């Protein structure tokens, strides 16, 4: 069975909305779009390159798909993002959408039927591991169904106060093991957590 990894940019208070730019997602009056930009550096850039170094297929919610589809197909001539553009444009993209006929980005496929069942079946298919970026609504459904095998988080030293959050009260209780961590000069904590099953509890003597 192939692994499902969720990669996310997250504030200290768990917000993941519109990390990359002011117009990315202004829903509910969100004012801080682009909050990760001041913290970009070589350390975080290298981690992103490492994330994409192994074969993967993208698993995306519709809003994130539309953002990516409006950006990556047009970045091939930009040397700074050429490698990622080539990857994103070529890999299979599995999309949670009610409008499958409008998926016109190369190699895009709509998930059919019940979303959780479709993703569970996708994990059992042969192929590269699945990678989800952004896609907050989708990620929360994945967490509620216990389908996430690994979390790749960049935790930024900001408190945003409001906005769409990575975790909510529907997440299934799971224990994770910290497999790797590093901090950037700007104070961003980069952490990779691997699912370890049920949460254990105890008491202090």
UniProtKB/TrEMBL annotation:
Stored PANTHER family: BIFUNCTIONAL DEAMINASE-REDUCTASE DOMAIN PROTEIN, DIHYDROFOLATE REDUCTASE FAMILY PROTEIN (AFU_ORTHOLOGUE AFUA_8G06820)
UniProt cross-references to SUPFAM superfamilies, sorted A to Z: Dihydrofolate reductase-like (SSF53597)
Domain Bacterial bifunctional deaminase-reductase C-terminal: 2-189
GO biological process, one term: riboflavin biosynthetic process
Organism: Pseudomonas fluorescens
Residues spanning the signal sequence: none
GO molecular function, one term: 5-amino-6-(5-phosphoribosylamino)uracil reductase activity
Pfam families documented for this protein: RibD_C
Protein name: Bacterial bifunctional deaminase-reductase C-terminal domain-containing protein
Gene3D superfamilies from the UniProt entry: Dihydrofolate Reductase, subunit A
């Amino acid at each position: 069975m192939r692994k499902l990894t969720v990669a996310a940019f997250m504030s200290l208070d768990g917000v993941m909305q519109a990390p990359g730019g002011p117009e990315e997602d202004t829903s509910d009056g969100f004012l801080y779009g682009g909050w990760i930009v001041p913290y970009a550096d070589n350390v975080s850039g290298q981690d992103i390159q490492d994330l994409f170094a192994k074969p993967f297929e993208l698993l995306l919610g519709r809003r994130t798909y539309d953002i990516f589809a409006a950006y990556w197909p047009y970045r091939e001539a930009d040397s700074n993002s050429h490698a990622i553009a080539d990857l994103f444009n070529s890999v299979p993209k599995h999309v949670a959408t009610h409008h499958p006929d409008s998926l016109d980005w190369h190699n895009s496929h709509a998930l059919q039927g019940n979303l959780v069942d479709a993703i569970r079946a996708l994990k059992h298919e042969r192929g590269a591991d699945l990678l989800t970026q952004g896609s907050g609504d989708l990620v929360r459904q994945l967490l509620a169904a216990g389908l996430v095998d690994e979390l790749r988080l960049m935790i930024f030293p900001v408190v945003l106060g409001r906005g769409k959050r990575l975790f909510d009260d529907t997440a299934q209780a799971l224990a994770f093991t910290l497999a790797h961590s590093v901090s950037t000069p700007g104070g961003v904590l980069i952490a990779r957590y691997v699912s370890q099953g049920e949460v254990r509890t105890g008491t202090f003597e």
